[in-house]
Every structure is written in C-alpha cells, then in structure tokens.
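Holo prediction — zinc ion.
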Amino acid sequence: MKLRVLGCSGGSVRGRFLSCFLLEDRVSLDAGGLTNALTLKEQQGVGHVIVSHTHLDHNCGLPFLLDNVFGDVSEPVMVYGTHTVIESLKAHMFNGDLWPDFTQLPSADAPTMRFQEIEAEKPFVIGDLTFTPIEVEHLTPTVGLLIENKDGAILYTSDTGPTDRIWQLANAQDNLKAVITEISFSNAGGALAEASGHMTPDILAEELKKLTKDVPVLVTHTKPGHLHLIEQELEDMNLARVELLEQGKTYNF
Ligand SMILES: [Zn+2]
Ligand SMILES: [Zn+2]
C-alpha cells in the first residue's frame, strides 16, 4: 500500500502542511494540506476524499481542490464522512455563502462533488482498498480508519486522546503493518492535550500498552510550537518503535 504524506503538521506555518495522506495517488485521507502539496495535475487525479472529522485542519484543502478541478473532472470527487461530518460540511462550508455548493455545480446531474455517508465499524471499499471507520475520543465526533488491501493493513487514528476500541481492532488484525497516530503537544503541554482531546509522548506511551502488535508507530499532528520539545522527549523516552512521520515522504506498506 502506497501512502504519501502530504501534510503531518498539527498547525499551519510556512512550509509545514496540515493533516493529509494520499493513498495509491488517488484517495486523500483527510484534506488539510491537499492543495498545498499537490500540483494541479496531481489534484485532478484525486477521486476520493475521506474526512475524519469536522475540524478545519483536516478539511480546509477540500474547497480549494474542488475549485481547482471544477469543470475538469469526468466523475464527481467522492467525499466520505460520518453523518455529523457531512451535515457540518453542508451547513458551514459548502453552503453557498462561505463556498459554493459543489454538489450542484456545474449541474445537479454532473456535479463536481458527491457526499457519501460512512458509519463506524461498517467497512466501505474504494478500488482495492477497504476502509473501516472506528470512533476515537476527540472534542468533536471523530473516526480513525483501518485501511486494508491484499498486502496488509494500516491504522490511522486521526486526532484522539486516550481511547480503547481502535486498539482492540488493531490487535485483532493478522497483517497490521503500521499505525499512524498523533502527538500534538509536548509533555509540558499535558493539560492542553487533556483539554483538547489530543496526546503527548507520555499519553501515547500509555496508549501503546494497549497495542499488542509490534509494528512501527508513525506520529503525525505535532503542533509547530511543541515540535522540538516532542522530538527531545521522544528521544529521552527511547520508545523504540515510535518515529515522526516525514512530510513529502512516500511509505510503502
Ligand atoms: Zn481535531
Ligand atoms: Zn487536527
């Protein structure tokens, strides 16, 4: 499974893009840095966008993607989210005020975008990939995703604080290759992490006691102001299987 890290920053600063991972060159898992990281031609190849939750840092690239491909796509871009996510995107983003309603443009019969509702623990298929949404613990309803193909599976937790169900399902996977999870704040910012439904190196270390699979744990969503301290703390803690994701890098699982 090919995964290209378009953005793995938990905040927007020069040169660092927000949460966005491109699978097999055409499925975007979250859509923070989507248009910052891709050429126009590459954007035209994105047929599917999965939105894990309503927070802007996970979907702010979507309106600009649709604007860029408007008039140039033969099939609508499919946008996947839970009921809550889709209702929020309709009401607050594609409401004809903040941004046009691309489900009706250029026409209702041949629109630029279509919504597809997904449900927790009901798998759905895009090409060779099967996705299972799994609820995690965040400020707003959020799903992580288990992503499987014939070669194996990876798990993306999206934004979460301490949680249980996703680790249970990870442990039940025979062919898990990697976990992508988050650290937003340094240990010094533990109170902020707790208040906002995120993790620190210490919280992740506790969470990983629930994961029985010995697979690489790749970290995303570091807040720019906490990044250096997080790097130091991870080094001091000597968590062998934990490493920070690299923006722009392609991983083959
Ligand atoms: Zn969030
Ligand atoms: Zn986020």
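READOUT: The radius of gyration is 17 Å.
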